[in-house]
Amino acid sequence: MPEIKKKSNIEIERNPIERFLMYVRDFLRAHTKQVIYSTTVVLVLFFLSLTVYLLLDRSSEKELIRLEIIIDNYNDAVRENNTEANNKAITELNKLISDTRYGFVNRVCHYWLGNILFEEKKYGEAYHAFDVFIKKSSDNVFVPIAINKAAICLEEDGRIDDAIALLSKHINDSKNKITMDQIYYNLGRLYHLNNNQIKAREAFKHVVDEYPESAYANRSKERLLLLSAIK
């Protein structure tokens, strides 16, 4: 009697990568239309995003050049003692702020505007410009300078409590140590003006202890001597 050969079932064991690739192949075959549609949408969105980015980048470059021209013209006019330099720069910066509305150039415009208005002793307007810059530029190296000047603007307008609150908030929130000696010194002055001699001494002493090489350390020592005479 002839021997009956049994058919053997052979299973090929595939590694995880091969199984994944087989799954992808089967999925693509079963969903060809959806895959083509999705890929088309992704590519269209990618190219649209790239186009917008390039347009914004080119626009930002033009805005920066425009700002540089304004500042260069302003500096030249100041050197020539042109009395209209400030007014012209204020007008041009406000126009650029209106045209940009956001971004680096917009933020820096507020900083420059605040400084020019500060020179004009228009402290209310200067404070507003500095305030906008500070809120939009928390990581900018010029923020501590703007905070100091904003506090002086508030002081000049008689808003001592608001000036103290501004400097105190910066001290508590900021990790940036730039001009911190000046900020503590001004805080001490403001406390003194507000008849809070204890807080004033603390602020001046902090400058002396933490920033002994600072020019504000000597000023703080003088202030501490004056305060020591107050009973």
**What's the mean pLDDT score?**
82
The helix tally amounts to 10
Distance between the termini: 128 Å
Classify the beta-strand content into a percent band.
Answer: under 5%
Please characterize this protein's 3D structure.
Residues 6-11 and 50-59 have low confidence and may be disordered. α2 packs parallel to α4, α7 (160-173) packs antiparallel against α8 and α8 packs antiparallel against α9 (197-210). The longest helix has 48 residues, at 32-79. This protein has ten helices and no strands. The protein has a single domain, classed as Alpha Horseshoe (Serine Threonine Protein Phosphatase 5, Tetratricopeptide repeat). It has helices at residues 16-30, 32-79, 85-100, 104-119, 123-136, 143-156, 160-173, 180-193, 197-210, 215-228. The protein is flat, with a radius of gyration of 32 Å. With 231 residues, the protein is an all-alpha fold.
Outline:
This protein is mainly α and 231 residues long. The chain contains ten helices and no strands. The protein is flat and about 90 Å long.
